[in-house]
Structures are given as C-alpha cells and as structure tokens.
Amino acid sequence: MKNQLGILSDPTKFHSSISIDNLDSELLKKMLESMIVIRKTEQQLAVGRKNGLIGGPVHLGVGQEAIAVGISQLLQRTDRVFGAHRSHSHLLALNPDFYRLFAEVLGKATGFSKGMGGSMHLHDQPNGFYGSVPIVAGTVSLAVGAAMAAKLQGTNDIGVAYIGDGAVEEGVVHESFNLAKIQNAPMLFVIENNLFASHMHISLRQPSDLISRFAIANEIPHKLVDGNDVVAVFNAAKEQVTDMRAGKGPRFLELVTYRWYGHVDWRDDVDVGVERSLDDIENWKARDPILRLSRAMIEAGIWSEDQELTINEELDVAITQAWDQAIDDPYPDSDATLKYVYSPTNLKAK
Amino acid sequence: MKNYDYGTAILSAFEYLLENYPEVFVIGQGLWSPWYVGNSMTDLDKKFGADRIIDTPVSESACTGAAVGASLAGMKPIVVHPRMDFMIYAMDAIVNQAAKWSHMLGGQAHPGVTIRSIINRGGEQGAQHSQALHAWFAHVPGLRVVMPSTVADARDLLIASVLCPDPVMYIDDRWLYEQEDNLSPVVELDLSQQKPCISRSGNDITIVGSSHASLLARDGADILGAEDISAEVIDIRVLNPFFVEGIVESVKKTRNLLVVDSGCLSAGFSGEIIAKVMERLPVNCLKNSPIRIALPDAPAPTSRFLQSSYYLSSVDVVEAVRRILKH
Predict the structure, then answer these.
(1) How much is the average pLDDT of A237-250?
(2) Distance set, CA B86 to CA A8, A274, A285, B61 (Å)
(3) A120 vs chain B: nearest CA distance in angstroms?
(4) Which residues in chain A are closer than 8 Å to B77, comparing Cβ atoms?
C-alpha cells in the first residue's frame, strides 16, 4: 500500500496539546464537554454490553469524538445528517441526550427510535439527525438526496454523511460522489479514516491509505486533517460548510483517527492481530482528542484541572442516573412490531 | 376514439402531480430524451424544467438512494427505472432503506418515495431485458407494490402512490400500453384502501392476475364467454399489502380457481395467491384443483423461436380454464 497519509497515520505522532488558535473559549469549553459526554456515554455502553444488560451489538467510537463534535458546531437543526453503524457520537454531538440513547440501546420505548432501532438504527430528526443504519455505505446516497432536496426547497441546509474508510470500498459511494458533484448538491462527505474496516487494516484493502483520492477523481474540493484535533476539524469544516451554504456544491473532509475498542462491543483486543497491535492502540490513546484539547486549554489559562474534575464527577452522576432510569423504562407495546411497518396517516382524499 | 391510452394516462398522472405538488420531482435515466418509456413521459422536462425532471448518470443505486433521502426530507420523488432489470443495482436503497426506515426508527421516518419500474420484454431482448420481479418486492414488508393493469389505474394508482407517505414500487408493463379508455377527471385515491377489483363477472371459474397477466385473463374470459363459460376475472392491482378477501368470496361462488402471473412460476406471486385463498376456503369448496400458469423457471431466451413459447398468451389462459373445467 502507498502511504499517502504520511505522519497523520503514524501513531507515535501528535501526542502533544493541540493549537487552539484564537477560538472563542466558550466554544472550546462546549466542544470539550461534548467530547467528554460522548466518551463517558460510550464507556457506559461498553460496561452495559459487557455485563449483558445490552443484548445487541454496540459499535463504539471512543477515540473518534473530535470529528462529530468539531463538525456539529457548524450545523443547524434543519441540516440533514446521516450516520452508519458507529454513530453514537454523530447523534450525541447534535443532541447530548444520553438518556434517550441508553433507552434506545436497551430497546426501550423512550429511546430515540422508540425502542425499534437499538444502537444501529438511530433517529433524531428534530436535531438534524435523519438516521443511521448498519448496512455499510447504506445512507450515503440518501444524504446526497436530502442535500439535493435542500436545494430544491430553496434552503441553505446541507447534507452530511459520515463515511468510514471501509465504506468507500462500496460502489454506491462512488456513484454518490459523482451524483453530488454533477448535481452541485450541498453535500459534505465526512471521511472518518480510522484505518480499519472490521478487523482489516486499510493496507490489506486498498492500494493507498488516502481516501481523498476519490474527491480528486470527482472534482470535489477536499481537506485532510488530524481527526483527533477538534480545532483542526472545526476550522476545516467551517470553511467548507460556509462554501456549501453559499451554493458552491459538495465538499469532502477526510479525518484521520483511530478507534480504541475493537470493531464491535467492549474489547479492545478482539481484532488485534491483523495489522492492529497493542502498541498501536496505546500510542493512539496518547493521541487522545480530549486530553489534547484539555491540556491546551489549561496551558492557555481558560480551563483548569479542577473544572475538568468537576465536570467529570457531575457527568458520572448524571450518566448513572440516566442509565438506571433507562433500565427501568418500559419496552415498546407488543403491537409495535406490526404498527410501524406502514405509515398510520392515510391520505385524506380531496 | 378514446381520450387516453395507457402511456398517456401515466403522462397525465405525472402532469397532475407536478402541477399540484411542488414537492414532487422525477429522477432517472433518459428523462431528457424519454424514448425508453414510450409516450408516458414526453416533454415533461420542457414543461416542468430540468430541475424537477432530473436526468441522471448511469447510477441506479445512488439515484434511487437519493430519491429515498429526498423523501425523508419532505419531498415526493418519483424514481424511474425504464427497465426493471437494471433496477437490481438499487436493491439496497429499496429493500434495506426505503422499506425499513419507518419500522426501524419507530414510525418517525417516512420515506414516501415512488419507484416506477417498467417491465419491458419481448423483441428478442433476452434474459436481462425482460424480467417481471414483482414477487421479490411483494415479499418485503414496508414496501407497497402496485401493478396497474388498466388505463384508469395507470393514472390513478400512480397519483395515489406518489401521495402515499410510504415507499411504493409502481410497476407498469409495456405490453399494456396499447389499451385505450375514456377517463374522467382525477380523483385522488388513498392507496392503502385500494383492493383487488372484479373486472369481469362470472360464475364458472375465478381467474386472478395482475398487470399484463390480468389483461390476458380479461381477453381469455372474453373468448371463453363465446363458449358459454362464464369466468370471473379479478385484477389484483396492489400486491403488497395484499387483500385476499374479495378473491376468496369469488372462489366460494365459482368453486374453481386459475391464477395467471407474468413472473416465473416457482416461489412467485401465483403461489402466494393460491396459498392465501386455500387457507381461507372451507374444505371441499373447490370442484377442481386450482392451477397457476406463469413463465417457465428459466431466463427469457432471445431466439424468436424459443421466445414464442416462453411468454403467456390469452390462449394459454383459455386452455388452462378448459383443463380445470375438463371442458
């Protein structure tokens, strides 16, 4: 494989504090808190899965929080965001309601998808999250269509699709790049390049580790940044989102990152072996997007260890309460399996 | 001279929808030069603009998915697949996405997309320009499957499909396009209430079919009428969800059943009809064993000679009825 990501994919690099530029301190605090919420929520899910209270698979994105958090600061509620199998962060970055996520993952009627979706089928359209599904690349063309609709509807809304490096191996993704470009759709393709598809390293799947080569092939303006640097993600996305809202067509943002856990569930060692080593995992943990932002903010004097301790303690309490409440919540009614197959609202004949 | 044929009836449905519903748009291959689709989409791009009549790259999968996504965002898109065989590239968007989003997301998402796919066969076109795959789609909960057989249904069920908040697979067959009829002004129908209808009344046998098979059944019944065999023909119209009750009532009366289908025989929709009817009939109701006639379990051949015995005709319907009635 041709290594075109260079040091971006070298796990021994980028361990120090990030540059926070002149970003507003309130925005930095908001992004830090959002990342911590996502991290702690997913760690709770890992525990719940391990102890058997969660019956279905959970695909955790711990380590990848900066991507959704950096991008979501630039989104409005009427935007159209689509995810995939590893989408807890994509949802929580738009709406940090971990209680409803817990309820959903536990199959409870109070969840984001009324207990019909579980971890892999999430929905929060009032906050812009149209949906996530576990068919790899299953939502990419849908997001393009939602972006085309935004244009037809005369809004400045955009479509966003979170796409893994594995998903670009699906043919429909290339059709979608082409269609978005030819339609000049306001569509942001976010590539979360975490170097792995399930257990397979990108070197075993593709001739190059640079996913942006497909943006070049489709004449879509693109950027490539460290996905574990929330400020870099925010800055890159800011320019692209501004361009898209101004009618300049699709954009492509590739972010290099790494997931701490294995492909699915709570173990971090389950897919170690095929080019994924425990050393790499330890090194990538040192490229922690939360730690690197927090340190930078402390160094700049706009954050303190005490503040971080407080927020962590408060969140631990809130998460435990939310989890306990979700555990006690009711399951969907027994008629739900048939109830949601078709829409209940029949057209009233004129 | 009637005021519509099957193709212009479809065209008038497009015009009605595009005139009355700004959220309707059409996407598919060939729409700026729609010779693929007979007279059913002529000049829509000139009348309604290229923004709403979108001709596309050769990307069935992404274009169908895009229509699903646009429907989630409040539009009422119609995707056009001029030949059903090519639509197989779009199966994920149809089966995994459109059909399941309402259910998976707790009834909060409504992919109200209409997928118009055309059965276009014969003419020595062979195995990949010929298929009638309605049974596949009727197997998918959440996907409404509509097969208009008449000129009136071609127009009215297309309008009903687009106005329905659920995903709809609307399938028309080019072998139906020569039919003509006089149509009254449009009345919007609720698709969820559309059921099989009796298109010929009779007492000796019930013949059930959809789409082109239903036309063959009507023609067959007319031929049989001259022989004093009174056949009742039921046109299914909507295959999923499938309302079987009217067919059961008819069979209770005629006590004989023939099913005609334009798809392949095995694991096809003809078997589903017979199974659902038999489950609901009293024991010993039937005077004779039911029969289904459909395409052979083989891909369509290209050779004119082989093709002539592959597809069904109204004569096959007549002979099957005689076989059942031992006439």
Answers:
(1) 98
(2) 41, 38, 47, 10
(3) 9
(4) 145
Nearest to B69 by CA among A67, A161, A244, A71: A161
Which of A79, A124, A347 is the best substitution to test chain B (most B C-beta atoms within 10 A)?
A347
- Predicted pLDDT of residue B36: 86
Binning pLDDT at 50, 70 and 90, where does residue A345 land?
A: low
Would the pLDDT of B309 be above 60?
A: yes
**Residue B164 touches partner A, C-beta closer than 8 Å:** yes
Q: Is the ipTM of this complex over 0.95?
A: yes
Q: What percent of chain B has pLDDT over 70?
A: 100
Q: Which of A151, A210, A156 is nearest to A179 (CA)?
A: A151
Look-up: residue for tokens 């694991």?
B267
A146 touches chain B (CB under 8 A): yes
Q: Which of A113, A149, A344 sits opposite B105 (nearest CB)?
A: A113
Segment 329-348 of chain A within 8 Å of chain B by CB: 332, 336, 339-348
Instruction: Give strand pairing partners of B231.
Output: B205
CATH ID of A6-329, from 3.40.50.970, 3.40.50.300, 3.30.420.140, 3.55.40.10: 3.40.50.970
With CB atoms and an 8 Å threshold, state whether A131 touches B96. Answer: no
Interface membership of B20 toward A (CB under 8 Å)? no
Would you call A143 an interface residue with chain B, using a CB distance cutoff of 8 Å? yes
Rounded Cα gap, residues B119 and A230, in angstroms: 52
How close does chain B come to A114, measured CA to CA in Å?
A: 5
Per-residue tokens: B296 = 């052979």
Contacts of A339 in chain B (CB under 8 A): 107
**Where, residue-wise, is CATH 3.40.50.970 in chain B?**
4-193
Interface test with B, best of A340, A345, A346, A350 (most B CBs within 10 A): A340
For B306, other C-beta atoms within 10 Å of its C-beta total 12
Determine the Cα–Cα distance for residues A237 and A165; give it in Å rounded to an integer. Answer: 18
In tens, the pLDDT along A162-194 reads 999 999 999 999 999 999 999 999 999 999 999
> What pTM value is reported for the model?
0.97
> In this structure, what is the dihedral angle of CA atoms A303, A304, A309, A314, given to the nearest 10 degrees?
-40
Contact (CB<8Å) A113/B141? no
Q: For residue B131, which phi and psi values (nearest 5 degrees)?
A: -80, 150
Q: How far is B64 from chain A (nearest CA, A)?
A: 8
For the domain B4-193, what is the CATH superfamily, name and number?
Answer: Thiamin diphosphate (ThDP)-binding fold, Pyr/PP domains (3.40.50.970)
B203-240: per-residue pLDDT in tens?
Answer: 999 999 999 999 999 999 999 999 999 999 999 999 99
Beta bridge partners of B238: B146
Q: Rounded to a whole number, what is the distance in Å from the CA of A163 to chain B's nearest CA?
A: 15
DSSP string, B10-26: HHHHHHHHHHH-TTEEE
Instruction: State how far Cα B139 lies from the chain centre.
Output: 14
Assess A267–B contact: CB distance below 8 Å, yes or no.
no
Range B197-325: architecture per CATH = 3-Layer(aba) Sandwich (3.40)
